TrEMBL record, chain A:
Keywords: ATP-binding, Cell cycle, Cell division, Cell membrane, Membrane, Nucleotide-binding. The gene is ftsE. This is Cell division ATP-binding protein FtsE. GO terms for molecular function: ATP binding; ATP hydrolysis activity; transmembrane transporter activity. It comes from candidate division CPR3 bacterium 4484_211. GO terms for biological process: cell division. It is a peripheral membrane protein. GO terms for cellular component: plasma membrane. SMART domains: AAA. InterPro entries: AAA+_ATPase, ABC_transporter-like_ATP-bd, ABC_transporter-like_CS, ABC_transpr_LolD-like, Cell_div_FtsE, P-loop_NTPase. Belongs to the ABC transporter superfamily. The keyword Plastid does not apply.
From TrEMBL, chain B:
Residues 30-121 form the FtsX extracellular domain. Residues 146-268 form the ABC3 transporter permease C-terminal domain. It comes from candidate division CPR3 bacterium 4484_211. This is Cell division protein FtsX. It comes from the Bacteria. Coiled coil: none annotated.
Amino acid sequence: MIRFESVTKVFPGGTKALKEVTLTFKEGEFSFVVGPSGAGKTTLLNLLIRRYVPTEGDVWYQQYHVSRLPGRFIPRLRREIGMIFQDFKLLPQLSVYENVAFSLEAVGRPGQEIKELVPYMLKLVGLEDKMNRFPHQLSSGEAQRVSIARAMVFEPKVLLADEPTGNLDPRGGWEIVELLQQINQWGTTVIMATHDRDIVDSLRHRVVRIEEGVVVEDNAVGSYD
Amino acid sequence: MTLAIYAVSYFSAAVYRYNEVLKSFKEKPQLTVFFKDEATEAEILNLKTSLEARLEVKEISYISKEKALELYREQNLDKPELLEFVTADILPASLEISTTQVEFQESIARELSNNNRVESVVFHRDVVKQLVQFSRAARVEGFMWAVSLLTVSVLTILIIVGLSITAYGREIEIMKLVGAGNWYVRWPFIFQGAIYGVASAALAAGLLYLMPYIKDFFLNGTESVLLPGVSVFPVADWLLLRLWGATTILGAGLGALSSLAATWRYLKA
C-alpha cells in the first residue's frame, strides 16, 4: 500500500534526515516508528503527505507516485492520508465544531452533510458535549481528539500520527492510543511515530526503528528496545 | 488606491466635460459678422437673404445696433458704469450665422471678410482647436497619472496581502496539511483585495462629490491650473454614479488580481 524506495532526504544546509530508506506498509497495519529525536521519524511521515519531497528515491501510495504528484492532487492525497501532530495544529480562533467543519467546507461538502457528519465524528471521539469550546478551553488529550476527528471526517485509508502522545499525560496518552487502535480495527492503516516505550511494548505491533536516518530494525511484533 | 481611482474619475470627468463643450461647438457652429457703421440695414438684409439660400448655412439672424444695445444692457445689468456712455451708435450691427458643419465656417468667414461692408468676422476656430488640445492632454495625462497611481496601488496591495499571508502563515499551513485546496486558502485574500478596491472607489466618489466644496473653501473659486478652459466640478450626479460604478468594478478587479498575484507569490510552497 505504501512504499519507500531508497529514499534519501537532505535538507537545505546539508542535514541528511533519511538515508536510502526502503520500507513497505501494508493495508490495515498498525505500525510504530521509533527512534531518538532527530532520527528521521517525522521526515518519513511528512514525505508521505508530500510536505517534503525526497532528494533521492521514490515514495508510493497505492498506485500514486507521491514524490511526483502534481500540486493540484496534493489536497486530495492529504484527505486520503490523514495526519495528527504532537502540537495538534488546531486553529485557535475556531471552536471544536468549526475546527472539524472547516476541512469539510474546504472541499465544498454541502452544509447539511457537515451538520450531520461533524457531531457524529465528535461523538466518536467522545467530545459531543464540547463542540462549542475553543482549543484553549480543552485539555491536551481533548485537543488531540479534535485533531483525530478532523483527520477522520474524510474516512482516510491511512492515518499518520506524529508523536500524538508527546504532549499528553500517561492517561491521556493511553486514551489516544486506544482511539487509534479502534480506528485501526475499522480498517484504517495507522503509522505512529513515538517515543513512548510503555505504549510500544504493551501493544506488540510492528516496530520500525530509525537511527540517524537509517532503518536499523523492522520487527513484525516488536518492542521499543 | 483611493487616490488612483480619484485620478481615474477626475480625468474621466474632465474628458467628458471637454467633449461636451466641444460637442456643443460642433453641433452649433456659429460665426458672427460685424458690419462697419456705413453699412445700411438694407445692405445687411440683402446679404442675409443671399446667405440664407446657401446649403452650408443652417440658421441666420440679424442683430441691429438697437438690438445689440439691448443685449449689451441685459448682459451688464449689474455694471451701471459700463452702461452710462454706451449708445446704439457705437455698437456694430451683426449677423449671427450657424453653419450645418463646423468645416464650413472658415470658407464663409474668408468670403465675408472680403466684403467691404464687413468690419470683422469672429468664429470659434481657435476655441475648438484649443479645446481639442485640452481634451487630448486630459486624456493622455490622465491615462499616465492613472497608470502610475494604479501601479503603485497594485504593488501596495501585493505587499499588504503578502503581509497578511505571512501573518496567517500558521493557519494556512494547517489548512493545507488537512487537505484544503489552494483556492479555499486563496479566496479570503482575493476577497480582501477586492474589498480594498471597492472601498477606495467609494472614497474616491465621495471625494469627487465633495471636491467643489473643498475647492471653494480653500481656493475661493480660482480656476484649475491643471485643466484650464472648463471647470470639471461639480460633476453631474448621473456621471458621478456611473464613474462610481465603473471604478468600483475597476477597483474590485484590480484589488482581486493584485491579491491573486500575492497568493501566487506567497502560497507557492
